Amino acid sequence: MKQVNDFVWGPVMLCFLVGTGIFLTVRLKFKPWLNLPYAVKMILTKKDNTEGDVTPFQSLMIALSATVGTGNIVGVATAMVLGGPGALVWMWISAAFGLSTKYGESVLAVKYRETNERGEMAGGPMYAMKNGIGGVAGRVLAFLFAVFAVCASFGIGNMTQANSIAAAFNSSFGVDPALIGSILVILSMVILFKGVRSIGAVSSVVVPAMAAFYVVMALIVIVVNAGNLPAGIGEIFRMAFAPEAVAGGVGGSIIASMLTAMRWGVARGVFSNEAGLGSAPIAAAAAKTDHASRQGYVNMTGTFFDTMIICVLTGLVIASSGMLGTIDPETGKAVSGAQMTILAFSSVFGEHARVIVSTSLALFAFSTILGWEYYGEKALEYLVSNHDILVAYRVIFSFITYVGATQTLDLVWDFSDTANGLMAIPNLICLLWLSKDIAKECFDYEDRVVVREKQGEKVDLSVEG
């Protein structure tokens, strides 16, 4: 699995991911960057007179519930240990171009969505490929994406999250992973069997609350350790672009090259914000909106909140704590993952850090499980429209959380990374293929809506026609 994973996430894939983001950013004339403040202001807009299953805000919360997960706590720490502190810079850079990627894939998801036999919205990259690209090429790409998405739902969206929850509670409180796995199975089934509106309702409450709690705790650590912050930030940028560097001072004794920092920063950044994977657009397609570009901007903010704020805060907590590079006396290796983040928080909160990080991790990870079940189910629905099979998927998905909670971390992470990479390939091809459609929607919306709304005018295209 490791060999396959290294190939999937090699230099070619990194260039493909970031390159697609750069291409779209330039083709869209940097509108996703320029309109980011506008997009952030728009996320609370509610338009119930338009087609869709959930509000734009609930759609974003479903997407955020799936993205704000272990990547924000475990992934950042893993990247900074294996790729050096400089990996944080590459997470941020990939996220900056990921704004355009997330915008583009969400626009296509709404533009080419369909209504299924139960009256629910069905959309995402597979429908953009089928209806936008069309022909044999479109159907083949759509099939491959849907298959990879279902596989990824069990990896990035399930086993990795359950594994991190179980590991955190086991190391912090000595709770048996089997017990955690059993609890996750029950909670998942209770919520998932009520459908997308239930997931949206739960996410719209849990996601903002858990994010606010974590941000406040992280800011407290950063402020208390402010004396170490300049050195920590300096180390982060020095190692991000150094051909071969050894971290010093607050960076411990970690050795990493620029390519290593880039590899781990981009991989963990994509794992966290999912820009380019094509998963979040599945939630975007369910939103009530009057223009594909409007929901594109709404969902784009998910990358901003996830990586540019929460992941960066975790990175600064670790960098300012002086704990990076700490060696575990039992294994003789550098402390990584959730334990690294707990160590960083303990520099201020002491033993209470375990409670803070474990609670945050549990909430982040469980919300991701909910969001990714929706993604996986919609991908499976594209492949087989039989409702009984979809119900069976919910049952199997819920029970897989138990498997994830009781497996080793390395196996789970490698499986998740591989599934992510395979899922991204057809999606990125689709984005490049249909970039003309994305640009057309972007500039049409800019002329008809953005300019007017920035001047204070209320615009609803569903009324204007």
Descriptive overview:
This protein is mainly α and 465 residues long. It has one domain: Amino acid/polyamine transporter I (Up-down Bundle), CATH 1.20.1740. It is 76% helix and 2% strand. The strands form 2 sheets. The protein has a two-stranded antiparallel ribbon. The chain has a two-stranded antiparallel ribbon with strand order 3-4. Helix 1 packs parallel to helix 19, helix 2 packs parallel to helix 19 and helix 7 packs across helix 20. About 2% of the residues have low confidence. It is found in: Cell membrane. Keywords: Cell membrane, Membrane, Symport, Transmembrane, Transmembrane helix, Transport. Belongs to the alanine or glycine:cation symporter (AGCS) (TC 2.A.25) family.
Q: How many domains make up the coordinates?
A: 1
**Overall residue-averaged pLDDT value:** 83
Number of strands: 4
Radius of gyration, CA atoms, in whole angstroms: 21 Å
How far do the termini sit from each other? 52 Å
Query: What is the CATH topology classification name?
Result: Amino acid/polyamine transporter I
Q: Which residues form runs of ≥5 with pLDDT under 50? A: 246-253
So how many helices?
A: 21
Series of H and E elements: HHHHHHHEEHHHHHEEHHHHHHHHH
Structure classification = mainly alpha
GO molecular function: amino acid:sodium symporter activity
InterPro entries: Na/Ala_symport
Transmembrane segments: 7-26, 73-93, 136-157, 177-193, 205-224, 236-259, 304-327, 355-375, 387-405, 411-434
Main location: membrane
